[in-house]
Amino acid sequence: MARWNYVIRNAKLSGGEGVDIAIQDGHIAAMAPHLSEVGQEEIDADGQLVTVPLVDAHIHLDTTLTVPGRTSNRSGTLLEGIQRWGEIKSDITVQDVKKRAKEAILWEIAQGTLQIRTHVDICDERFTALYALRELKEEMASVVDLQLVAFPQEGVLCYPHGKELLETALHEGADIVGGIPHYEWTREDGIRELEYVFELAHREGRLIDVHCDETDDPDSRFVETMARLTKIHGWEGRVSASHTTAMHSYNPAYGFKLRRILREAGVSVIVNPLTNVLLQGRFDDFPKRRGMAPIKELDALEIPVALGFDCIMDPWYPLGTGNLLQAAWMALHLGHMSGAEEMNRVFRMATINGRRVFHPGQPSDLALQGPADLVIWDACSPIEALRLLPVPRTVMRQGKIIAQSQAAHRQVYYDDRTVTVDFKPQGHNGV
Ligand code: FE2
Q: What CATH number belongs to 54-358?
């Protein structure tokens, strides 16, 4: 008689160990090289990689799927993106935001992402996007964890009633306090904004995730202020600095100091390599800067680096499907993280590190008695997953299959034969 709800046979963990995984009542009930008892349903993983789901630690679901059609960005710059979004945001409705965001979330689920932290523009007295995403968070809770960041897109001090909007947003459904200090008119105002963000988060008991230093200006140094305020408020492990692209322009001595204090303050860094490689360096001639914080150097100090897709088809990024592995692939390239162990570290950024940022202090990897949230990849190792960018075979949440895909079937007609191509070298184990 079957003991378990499911048994996944012949799976491979990210370290290469072969396992069977038993699932019961939404949890991982057993994990061992060979489980003798059977499941009501048996899934043959066929030697493929099984991991926790991907985490999209930074996206803007309110602006998603507005390009083309609703607006466009002629220059392709970050500042024109803010301008174009500002022109259309007064026209959005709750139903409209929900429809677009839901479509993007389903794309992400199909590609193995089950935790999504979305920034929500709260520089809008109607809170249209916030109310839409608050509803969607509830409606889609069985398939995805959404976190909502109150994001002051047009500033806090330089926007009318910015402080009140930020605080009210927390009482209207936002989970996390956001900010944008480099967008304030002066450095002093940027610091005042951060002081307010930290005071508010401390008072309300919230996590912090600030758009910080998303510029090429090497004099934009608000991340150091975030580290200091994290220590002052005792908020270690609860603070994320997002984008942080100015780090790519700091001199080596300052970069070294900054990484040291980030580590000591327990601040994580969330990078968005796809959008920022496109948006940064726009004032450069040649060479053009890369637009990504130095993830290799941050990771070497065990500073948690997580990844975001940031934008899908919106005024800042007209492309994208929400496949977080594409962001990891780009991070690997821009970060020069092509050493064998480094590639495994990049895969961790897309999974384990994202979970640490999302739910600090909770288990971040597959574990006995932990939730059966997992992905069976069409790849046998993290490195092969980063090479092939596959769509997952199976996505499971709390012990239920919520997405399945089949690998594309590709044939080449050659020499009077039909040859099937899957980009997996024969006799090669993918590691
Ligand atoms: Fe962003």
A: 3.20.20.140
